[in-house]
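User: Continuing from earlier, I have the next pair ready.

Assistant: Great, send them over.

User: Here they are, in order.

Assistant: Folding the first of the pair now:
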Amino acid sequence: MHEVWFQATENCNLKCGHCAYNFGPGGETASEDTVEAVVEALPKDTFSFSLTGGEIFTRKQILVHALAYAAVMREERFPNAKLALQTNGYWVDNPEETFERMRTLFELGLDFLCFSGNDKYHEEHDIDTSKLRFDPKIIADSVRNSSNSTSILETAYLKMLATYGIDSFPSSFYVLSSGIDKGVYPVGRAKHLPSEELNMHSVCDITRNQTNGRSELLVDVRGDVHMCIWKIPPPIGSVHDAPIDVLVEDAMKKPIYSILALGGPEMLAKVFGLYEQSDIQDMFYRFSPCYMCEQVFAKLAEKS
């Protein structure tokens, strides 16, 4: 089972202090050839394919091309996949325009529209989070009782339900609007946030996914495939060279990734003898797995 995130652009209209990728205005965008290569490389057992950035709505031509191409190829190549899109929601300004954009995405084949801008970090960059409020209880009550909604996003979504005759919630076109409620991962620019705002007790994604029997992968604008969505370990290959499932299978034959999958960066540091045992234990208890992984791969790069 594969969940694949595709960073179709590194361009963003904002330059947030909590960004895990150091993205902002002027970032690179994938070519149409890369978009098609990514879609064609998706494994047959892909259950989720998400378009993200950067801010994908700043590059609408690539957004439309990627979503339309994925929708066309889905039936033949990855029939059980849900198509998702993540945005900070800067474009949600009035109900009618928001509805029209939702309708376009739905008709292109989108299943999930995820808003990530509903938090204090985006408010600092003039995102009006009141417009992005989306309460499933309000939606469900409105469907049953025709009560009035209170946010622009809720109003636009209710019009979607009415327009397409969907009389239940959740529907075949699902909206999620959320912010950060468990701390920010300490990667990218977020490393400079106050420690109390960081999630220091996370589990290595590669280890967690191995335990769950699935893989969560990220493909960047160049088509390079990363087994960690934070892109800390080096990429395992390119979609221009091989399908994603082949790249994953080959990567797991290498000691670095097989050890990461079994025991995370702590085990990797032990097996390769990168630190004294006491130092490894100190890093494990004081720092997040992401920080430890960065240090381990920096050491590995020095040795090579």
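And the other member of the pair:
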Amino acid sequence: MTTATQQAAEPKAQAVHHVRLGRISATVWKADTDAGPRFSVSLQRSYRLPEEQRSGNGDNGWRNTSFFGRDECLIVAEAARQAADWIFQQQRPQDQNGHGILTTLAQEVARLSGQQVGTEEAPF
């Protein structure tokens, strides 16, 4: 159970970036913590209810879900990749002059997974 004190101590996340690929979207959230910014991503699919299932009163029938069909999996993967790339760009290391050091997402993934990546293409 979460207490009111714990809820007040938790950082509030704000939506800072949005990727939309057709009906699939990825929203990047940022929470400022004592250890620095923390990013997370939510993925969803928009769909529209048939007119007879809408509640009326201006209900346009649009809903969101976090369930995806087989034909949407690659689109979800691409939206997640674009969101990860955006986060990576926000967090890339800087040199002593404050300029971002140019690296690729593939190089960062390889670094985190302990793989060696040279100047040729990444192994994935």
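Worth noting for the second one:
The chain has two domains: 10-86, 92-124. Strands lie at 14-21, 24-33, 36-48, 62-65.
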